[in-house]
Amino acid sequence: MRVVTWLFNLVLFVLALGFALSNTDSIDLRFMPGGLQWRAPLVVFLLIFLAAGVVLGLLAAGPSLFRQRREIARLNKELRHATRPANGGVTAATPPVDAVPDPVTRLGV
Q1: Is the dihedral of CA 98, 104, 107, 109 positive or negative?
Q2: Of these four, 3, 10, 32, 106, which has the most CB atoms within 10 Å of its CB?
Q3: Cβ(58)–Cβ(39) under 8 Å?
Q4: CB atoms inside a 10 Å sphere around CB 16
Q5: Model pTM?
Q6: Beta bridge partners of 101
Q7: Which residue has the higher pLDDT, 96 or 46?
């Protein structure tokens, strides 16, 4: 599976590089009717707007990510409390189970 991922990333990089090399013409970007203007290659503008979109997307996803992490921590605490034995936590039949984090999400259950 890793080989397929690396091949996909390589093909994507080659396509992006080919796109960048074929769009080196300079263009004018006008910001306001007052005459603010910036002249640069098209690829520079595309890269700037791509980076701005990634940053805005991460900022938009941040609150829900933190809310989900708080909910997961609350549920893990509730699960530990619910599975605790009634006699003070010492039992001979059931050894304590450690939460093993998932290697992908790094969340233990």
Answers
A1: negative
A2: 10
A3: no
A4: 13
A5: 0.55
A6: 108
A7: 46
Tokens of 71: 């909910």
Token pair of 14 as six digits: 């080659």
pLDDT in the model for residue 39: 92
In the 3-class helix/strand/coil scheme, how is the chain assigned residue by residue? CHHHHHHHHHHHHHHHHHHHHHCCCEEEEECCCCCCEEEEEHHHHHHHHHHHHHHHHHHHHHHHHHHHHHHHHHHHHHHHHHHCCCCCCCCCCCCCCCCCECCCCCCEC
- pLDDT exceeds cutoff 70 at 57: yes
Q: Which residues pair with 39 in a beta bridge?
A: 28
